Amino acid sequence: MASLAPTFGRGAMTNHWVDIKNADVVLIMGGNAAEAHPCGFKWVVEAKKHNRAKLVVVDPRFTRSAAVADLYAPIRTGTDIAFLGGVINYLLTKDAIQHDYVKAYTDFTFLVNDGYAFDNGLFSGYNADQRSYDKSSWGYQLGSDGYVKTDPTLQDPRCVFQLMKKHYSRYTPEMVEKICGTPRDQFLKVCETLASTATPERTTTVMYALGWTQHSVGSQMIRTAAMVQLLLGNIGIAGGGMNALRGHSNIQGLTDLGLLSNLLPGYLTLPGEKETDYRAYIDKRAAKPLRPNQLSYWQNYEKFHVSLMKAWFGDAATKDNHWAFDWLPKLDKVHDVLQVFDDMYQGKVNGYFCQGFNPLAAFPNKAKLGAALARLKYLVVIDPLATETSEFWKNFGEHNDVDPAKIQTTVFRLPSGCFAEENGSLVNSGRWLQWHWKGAEPPGEGKADIEIMAGLFTRLRDMYQAEGGAFPDPILNLAWPYRIAAAPAAEELAQEYSGKALTDLADPKDATKVFKKKGEQLDGFAQLRDDGSTSCGCWLFSGAWTPAGNLMARRDNADPYGDGQTLNWAWSWPANRRIMYNRASCDASGKPWNAKRKQVWWNGSAWVGSDVPDFKLDSNPADGMGPFIMNPEGVARFFALDKMVEGPFPEHYEPFETPIETNPLNSNPQAVSNPAARVFKGDMEVFGKAKDFPYAATSYRLTEHFHYWTKHCRINAVLQPEQFVEIGEDLAAEKGISAGDKIKVRSNRGQIIAVAVVTKRLRPLTVNGKKVHHVGIPIHWGFKGMTKPGYIANTLTPFVGDANAQTPEFKSFLVNIEKV
Amino acid sequence: MHVTRRQFFRICSAGLPASSIAAMGFSPAAALAEVRAFKLARTTETRNTCPYCSVSCGVLMYSLGDKAKNAKAEIIHIEGDPDHPVNRGTLCPKGAALLDFVNSPDRLKHPEVREAGSNEWKRISWDDAFNRIAKLMKADRDANFITKNADGATVNRWLSTGFLAASASSNESGYITHKVVRSLGILAFDNQARV
Amino acid sequence: MALQSLDIASRSATTTPSPSMRETAEVAKLIDVSTCIGCKACQAACMEWNDLRDEVGRNSGVLDNPRDLSAASWTVMRYAEVEEGGKLEWLIRKDGCMHCADPGCLKACPAPGAIVKYANGIVDFQEENCIGCGYCITGCPFNIPRISQKDGKAYKCTLCSDRVAVGMEPACIKACPTGALQFGSKEQMKDYAAERIADLQQRGFQNAGLYDPPGVGGTHVMYVLHHADRPQLYRELPANPTISPLVALWKGVAKPVAAAALGLVALGSLFHYVVKGPNEVSKEMEKEVEE
Predict the structure, then answer these.
(1) Contact predicate A340/A366, CB 8 Å
(2) Which one of A362, A537, A655, A681 has the lowest number of neighbouring Cβ atoms within 10 Å?
């Protein structure tokens, strides 16, 4: 999300699962789809079987994805930017780029501010004390008309193309080998394979997951790959794209719905504490076009925002009170989980709720997490299963060695229903909202999550009603129109987030006609208004439930064009478009680049096709509107402006725990690791050094288990019963370890003991002249469940996150091992 | 390998009796083989979505009974939905074992509380749970709600209680959770997107 | 293709002929090892459909789990890491009953009707007739059947005969995420295998081929192998499986002779046999076969 949006305008998988079958080359890197997403991986196999596609896997481990790949290249964990930067250098040097595409649909020709610079590992504007940048120089040169200046000849040294070429010229195959440990010939084979799709006839699709996001430079890894895809002209194209494979069934949906510290539904953003003026808040977000004739769709921000506030606060949100703007909490800083657990650790948090979430197992540095939870006054766990978090206070011997008498936290555990016991919708990685139906009641006295939230809220509201208290207005005025207040129906909530008319709406084309009656469901976000006459809880989902009914429940799987779009199966955001930015599948004149892979096209008067055009339907190609309609530029960005905290171009930085303790790309001690990543007081000190912890560790999922859930399932416990750690044969020989031995794995934060699996699939790499071994640490064990009791793998991991998304660096850290 | 005389007799004596019964025409009725009865014949089928990864495979859940009032629906089998365009009936080892998630012995069945310093869970009613939690929330909110920051700006936030939302709950649960959490002024709000 | 027809082709220890007028298409499972990711979905689906829950075991230093077939684990994945021309290959084979056209288990089985072969090719155990002697294990060239500790009877993959009987594919086939498992008539499976083999050859696997061993009359579970010239690379998949000569001998010579000579004392022996307990005999027998 934090990397694709700054590049393309929206933060989600650009294509979708079935579309992967249309690819000619599949790059799996920063993920392991065969094991983590087996049923989605089938479309890779289909591409191989029916499209003669080549599968390329780049991973520190020879995974099950690698087992069926045509080409596998090993890489040291945490060095993907160096690898992909090397690919960019290769493509630019060999001129293997899709010229017409990049010229028309990217910022290639845009001129950048003269103040912008990059030198010895740092971009212009760095403040070492604050570990952050003044990003004011990372901008465009603007003309007197307010538009970005361009150089269509690409000769100007300040154009994005020239700056990018210069930046990545340092990423030579030799440098890639030195940093990543990838043998040069294997790296070049990957480059050649990717370069084969720089033509309109061929595409590469990129599939990645938490193998990219869980690094201190995770967002920039993804951006580097996105840049490769833009150079190859593979965005907006069937069989192409940047496919972010989400790890959980509704992480996409819950993110779309804004369940993050700084968001509101539909990627609207909460105001900061300096943004107390409503108009300024809106204007800042409703970006005006930066090039002539661009759509810059966020100009509609106020319509979405007002409709949200009407959905939440009903009649109490009025034009006069700026639609209850003051009732929205204002941010002092981002309260992501790492921040919150640090605050909790400092004793600044009294109460905490965990809804279907097991942070003690899921977040880094278990010792710190347990200590933090013990400082809470109350903890409420809402879950179908008995999680470790809910019993953090209980002694489980070596696996959770605590003294309950010393833990003063009151813990409530509320049984919730699971998927099988509710109606509702989930959003998959491909942005499909799919409805599901209840098949049984929850066991015992379990209640659905909706009912639990409603039960808590209605009691709290009644208390505020009866007793008063701190600022009760937003609580007392929260719209609660549900037929059964204590148990709103999923259908009622779905209709609310999809949106309806609050008054009779006049037809914008003919004011004498009413085209929506008061109370009627809307057809989509284009009908939303900023005058309080519409209500919509999540503009991005608008159209999911229309007068035609619940479109998420549609089950027509017809695929008339044979390209896998199935437009009448469920419903996809935005506006049921299946491949985002699909305008880019045509050349500037509106003709598909590839006649065999037609998606949308200009028929002379409108955009039509096998997919819903992600574009203004009546925009004549001659007007030059760009395909990236969410960006004010109308094009995709190689140069990310001020949207990434550590720089407009991705630059390789070492993991915070680096086995080589230097960054071969610079000689600047400030720029070994991400100079702009947030590190909490006390956590910098517990980063381990290579002399004590010489092995590069990476944590991951196994195909037999899902996160910390399936250890509660007998079948999965049978399939993979006991905690283990994977090491290569060379390392095993060095340490005198045989398969099946118990080994101790230590990081600077703690230790675990597990069975050693000794394998050929992990090989030492030569990095910066040094031999580096990897240690693979599957995550699924804990002290609850049907599997054999084990240690929480995150006992080992460091408490530092990606500088943009604050996703913890689970994938690269240092450990030592010894035979027990 | 060769067969010794001793082995020869052993083979004959062990294998002989049964087959000679058949050879003599006493073919027993039990030998008329039958396959195991098809266990889904009259179960109720409900369509759902796998709650694990983001492929979101369609699943068919089969439950005992025909939804008659006196028959309690118990899910006895789950398999892939062949109509679903993505999974086309397939499931991974997690999805294929979903039945053991629904029926896990580790499912929670009743609201419980662990009091401060205690070493055990105590079963409580939903009413008690909701009331106690709501009281704790209100006391904390009333004590720590920030109306204005140091600069005098209206900020209306509550930082001393946080909420971690799920990763597999439905959009509808997520939506109402967000609505409630923001109405309280909570900023320490996050989901599993990061892990 | 009449998958639902489960007419009986032959029964263990039964000489009366089975009705054989109807002509039923043979079914087959094809395991395309080259697209198998070893995810164990087949194992999970098998346990779930067949209401089997094996014990939660231990990790013994490999990914294989359960470590071996058992009365409650009718299929397991077997992983092999081999180096071919300096290149690592992770060969993963789904192991389980091969449903031989000429089933050694059935030939060896002394209990009437405990093992049947249906006209569609499925070889099925009828546990209510099983006396637990373990001869099926001896007779099996692939070492598949297992005797249960719980009820002393032999169990193995049924190819989901209950599903196939009502026109559905076996549970493992349906689940397989990558389509490495396919199901259809044996002819269709051979055709499909040919396509896969051509694709593999084009990707550089010159020795790709079909595993349908003639020593057991062909099988109703076949493999597409990248290295069909060396099946033993796939965790000792036998290159030329044949029925043990002991069983052949018992079936071909010993049984008729013995039956003619000793028919009258048969009933007594049978009861003695059942009482004596099966496992012991089975182990002795196995040992002798190995000698």
Answers:
(1) no
(2) A681
Q: Which of B73, B102, B131 is the last residue of a domain?
A: B102
Report whether B136 contacts A377 (CB < 8 A). Answer: yes
Q: Tell me the C-alpha distance between C172 and A587, whole Å.
A: 46
The CA–CA distances, whole Å, from A290 to A42, A627, A634, A758, C253 equal 41, 14, 8, 56, 92
Q: What is the DSSP string of A134-172?
A: -GGGSSBPB-TTSSBPB-TTS-STTBHHHHHHHHHTT--
Mean pLDDT of A730-748: 98
- To test the contact with chain B by mutation, choose from A222, A249, A305, A459 the residue with the greatest count of B C-beta atoms within 10 A, namely A249
Say whether pLDDT at A700 is over 60. Answer: yes
Question: What is the rounded CA–CA span in Å between residue A726 and residue A704?
Answer: 15
- Does residue C291 register a pLDDT over 70? no
Of C90, C92, C178, the CB nearest to A45: C178
Q: What is the pTM of this model?
A: 0.94
Which pLDDT score is estimated for B195?
Answer: 62
The stretch A371-392 carries a mean pLDDT of 98
How many domains are contained in chain A? 3
The whole-angstrom separation of Cα A140 and Cα A158 is 10
Quote the CA–CA distance of C77 and C92 in Å, as a whole number. Answer: 7
User: Residue C106 maps to which CATH number?
Assistant: 3.30.70.20
Contact A273, A332 (CB under 8 A): yes
pLDDT value for C263: 44
Q: Do B31 and C113 touch (CB under 8 A)?
A: yes
β-partners of residue A352 are A379, B162
Average pLDDT over residues A796-815: 93
ipTM greater than 0.90, yes or no? yes
Are the beta carbons of C270 and B17 separated by less than 8 Å?
Answer: yes
- Asked if residue A535 lies in contact with residue A265, where contact means CB atoms within 8 angstroms, the answer is no
Predicted local confidence at residue B11, as pLDDT: 42
Mean pLDDT rounded to a whole number for chain A: 97
CB contact under 8 A, C57 and A718: yes
- Which residue of chain B comes nearest to A261, CA vs CA? B189
- Structural domain boundaries, residue B135: 112-194
Looking at chain C, which subunits does it touch, using at least 3 CB pairs closer than 8 Å as the criterion? A, B
Per-residue confidence band for C244, with pLDDT thresholds at 50, 70 and 90: confident
- As a whole number of angstroms, the distance between CA C90 and CA B112 comes to 48
Contact B31 C129 (CB under 8 A): yes
**A637 within 8 A of A106, measured Cβ to Cβ:** yes
Half-sphere exposure of A744 (CA within 13 A, CB side): 9
pLDDT of residue B4: 44
Domain of A683, CATH number, reads: 2.40.40.20
Neighbouring CB atoms inside 10 A of B70's CB total 5
Residue C184 β-bridge partners:
C28
CA distance B113 to B128: 10
* Mean pLDDT in residue range A141-145: 97
Q: Are residues B154 and B86 in the same domain?
A: no
- Return the residue in B10, B19, B75, B88 with the most chain C beta carbons within 10 A, the one to mutate for interface testing: B19
Rounded mean pLDDT, B92-99: 98
Q: Using the 3D structure, point to which of B53, B80, B102 is the last residue of a domain.
A: B102
What pLDDT digit, counting tens, does each position of A53-91 carry? Answer: 999 999 999 999 999 999 999 999 999 999 999 999 999
Nearest CB to B91 within list C41, C258, C291? C41
CA–CA dist A271, A285 (Å, integer): 10
Residue pLDDT, tens place only, A659-692: 999 999 999 999 999 999 999 988 888 899 999 9
Contacts of A669 (CB under 8 A, 6+ apart): none
